[in-house]
């Protein structure tokens, strides 16, 4: 049976992830003679369940990890049974970062559907009640400290300190962030959601 390599889409349009997953698309899938499926995460790219109203307070409540995983399971069951006519084809989920978290979680929550997972750079324990909330900043600072760029560690440390202070003190934060980060006129930050997408 040919395996299904299933990309657990994360927080952006899915096409970008296809372009960045050469190991899976160009090496692993051909070697395994596997099917390759990329799913787009709800509320990202063109997957807007309520169209232009998707981000209203009433509708954004459906933007959850649990809902995304359920979408993927419904899709996988349909694809295996109705399209491939191969209910026993093994499924290997894969993804990186948040997508890697989804790949790991879909395997843990649905072992009856997903047979394995490749979870690259997946911070599955990066939650405030599990991991030190400053750990990411510390790792990035350490990484910059090993850079060949002069003063890189001290500059990154100062940058994190300034951003933390700024977050606590500023009122109209978006206007100033646009100015400080020289954001293009057609991509102005107006909300925390914009900041999340921009990063």
Q: Could you say which overall geometry the principal axes of the C-alpha atoms support?
A: globular
**Rg computed from alpha carbons, rounded to a whole number of angstroms:** 20 Å
Task: Give me the count of strands.
Answer: 4
Query: Secondary-structure element order, as H and E?
Result: EHHEHEHEHHHH
Oligomer: single chain
Low-confidence stretches: none
Roughly how much helix do the residues carry, as a percent range?
A: 40-55%
Reading side by side through the largest sheet, how are the strands ordered?
Answer: 2-1-3-4
Helix/strand/pairing category: alpha/beta
Characterize the biggest β-sheet.
4 strands, parallel
Strand content: 5-15%
Q: How many separate helices?
A: 8
Mean pLDDT, to the nearest integer, reads 84
N- to C-terminal distance: 40 Å
TL;DR?
With 199 residues, the chain is an alpha/beta fold. 47% of the residues lie in helices and 11% in strands.
Describe the model.
The protein is of the alpha/beta class and 199 residues long. 47% of the residues lie in helices and 11% in strands. It is built from eight helices and four strands; from the N terminus they run βααβαβαβαααα. The chain has helices at residues 14-20, 22-32, 65-83, 98-109, 135-145, 152-169, 173-180, 192-198; strands at residues 4-8, 35-39, 91-96, 116-120. Strands 2-1-3-4 form a four-stranded parallel beta sheet, sandwiched between helices. α5 (135-145) packs antiparallel against α6 (152-169). It starts with a strand and ends with a helix. The model has no long low-confidence stretch (mean pLDDT 84).
């Amino acid at each position: 049976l040919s395996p299904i390599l299933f990309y657990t889409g994360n927080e952006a349009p899915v096409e970008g992830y296809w372009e960045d997953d050469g190991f899976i698309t160009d090496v692993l899938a051909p070697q395994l003679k596997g099917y390759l499926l990329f799913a787009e995460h709800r509320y990202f790219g063109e997957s807007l369940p309520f169209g232009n109203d998707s981000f209203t307070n009433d509708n954004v409540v459906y933007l959850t990890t649990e809902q995304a995983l359920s979408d993927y399971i419904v899709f996988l069951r349909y694809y295996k049974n109705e399209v491939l006519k191969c209910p026993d084809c093994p499924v290997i989920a894969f993804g990186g970062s948040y997508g890697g978290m989804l790949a790991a979680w879909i395997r843990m929550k649905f072992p009856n559907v997903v047979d394995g997972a490749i979870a690259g750079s997946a911070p599955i324990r990066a939650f405030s009640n599990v991991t030190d909330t400053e750990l990411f900043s510390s790792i990035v600072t350490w990484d910059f400290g090993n850079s060949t760029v002069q003063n890189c560690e001290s500059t990154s440390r100062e940058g994190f300190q300034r951003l933390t202070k700024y977050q606590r003190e500023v009122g109209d934060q978006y206007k100033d962030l646009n100015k400080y980060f020289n954001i293009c006129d057609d991509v102005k930050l107006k909300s925390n959601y914009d900041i999340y997408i921009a990063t």
